[in-house]
Amino acid sequence: MARVVNGVTLVLSVLVLAAALAAVVALFGDRDARFDLLSHFALVYGAVGLGGLAWALAARRGPMVAASVLALLASGALIRPEFVREAGPTAPATATGQIKVIQINALRDNADIGRIADWLIAQHPDIVTVTEARHDLRDLLIRRTGWKTAGSHGDLMILTPAQYVTMNRPTVSPRSKLSFVNATYAHSGGPMELVTTHLAWPTAPPVARQHRELASLVARLPRERMILTGDFNATPWSKGLQNLDRGLGLTRRDRDVPTYPAQVLGRAWPLPFLPIDHVYAGPGWATVKVERGPWLGSDHYPLIVTLAPAATP
């Protein structure tokens, strides 16, 4: 029995020390983008620290307690900004003029497109933005609902019950690394600008440039009633996304809603730990509700955000 306890303690000690070190290094992500990569796993460091602490107390391993506490404190410091930031005005469930926005990554090789279509239709959304959009999904939805599309020929799409009013795509550099679709739609509260994007993984070289280009793009469009969605491939714990939050002039309405990974080896994974799908909105919108949708055969869970016109002062 003692050998088993010692073996478990050794393995956990290595994991806890690694988690503590990674969490501490990630705190300096604003100084080096390579350090910031580690920040995305803040929840993992906290979970490892918590498990290590429980084992250390039960097995009476004092040194392991210190490492576990360090992992918990450092991961807590990474996570804290997400819970103290302003998430925009809120509105009650009875607010008028509500719109339901769904952001979903459909996954290019998803074999269950019919299931996605069934769920989307049942939600009665006002706006659906699709990353890794599939043309067979587009055609199925149009055939069954008559929805209109923007960006229907690429891998980013906006689907809505009503046709957009205008599509004024801002000019970007021919060498731009930013993929996006935007269009202007009518709403009882006034025109609203929709933008959806898909950013690269934080390990990819173009990410910092994409952030700058996205902030520049948003600044050239009307932001008061803008809604920006997408698969940002970045968690709120990262300095990269925190800086983007400040640079957009919009408010991210989701707060710690993990959407990835949604599956492992083709099967649903019930414990996503990376919040990387996001919905931003301008000051003209108040948040009614933020939810995560069910597994639909993709490696992302859908993100559902209900908005209503913000009360005027």
How many individual helices? 8
Number of domains: 2
Classify the fold: give the CATH topology of the largest domain: Deoxyribonuclease I, Chain A
Query: Unreliable stretches, pLDDT < 50, 5 or more residues?
Result: none
Beta fraction of the residues? Answer: 15-25%
Estimated helix fraction: 25-40%
Rounded to the nearest angstrom, the distance between the terminal CA atoms is 68 Å
Description:
The protein is an alpha+beta fold and 313 residues long. The protein folds into two domains: 2-84; 99-309, Endonuclease/exonuclease/phosphatase (Deoxyribonuclease I, Chain A), CATH 3.60.10.10. It has eight helices and 13 strands. The chain has helices spanning 2-26, 33-39, 42-59, 62-84, 113-123, 135-145, 207-219, 239-248, and strands at residues 99-105, 127-131, 148-150, 156-160, 180-185, 192-198, 227-231, 251-252, 263-264, 267-268, 277-281, 285-292, 303-309. The strands form three sheets. A six-stranded mixed beta sheet has the order 3-4-2-1-13-12, with no helix packed on it. The protein has a five-stranded mixed beta sheet with strand order 5-6-7-11-8, with helices on one face. The chain has a two-stranded antiparallel sheet with strand order 9-10. Helix 1 packs parallel to helix 4 (62-84). It is globular, with a radius of gyration of 21 Å. The termini are far apart. The mean pLDDT is 92.
